[in-house]
Give the backbone structure.
Amino acid sequence: MIRQKSNGFFIPDEKISVDMDIVISSLKVPYLRVSYYGTEQLSIPDGQTLSFFLDNEEIKLSSKRESNRLRKGNEAVEVLSYLVTRGQMKKISNGSKVKCSLHSYTFPVPNAMKDNWNTFIDEYWQ
């Protein structure tokens, strides 16, 4: 398995962190592993719950099961995996002003995250 690590961001005012790592399994199945950390639980169900908005296009990704959830005190963690193609990730990583919607939470995708995806795709995902 090849996994990109530490590709995320933190929003101090909202006390929210989102990590999105590309993973290519030992069976060569690529997916995007999304980890959400915050004070509010999103309760993300299965289905098309991750969307990227770039230029005039929306790319929707699906998860086959609901998020793995953990709540401790005022901290919530949810982790999901979404099947993704190389073409979809290249479009997303090359897009300008990309926004992402994770169930009910929408945020801009930082340029550093897109740059990390591009580097990973070019080096490991042929």
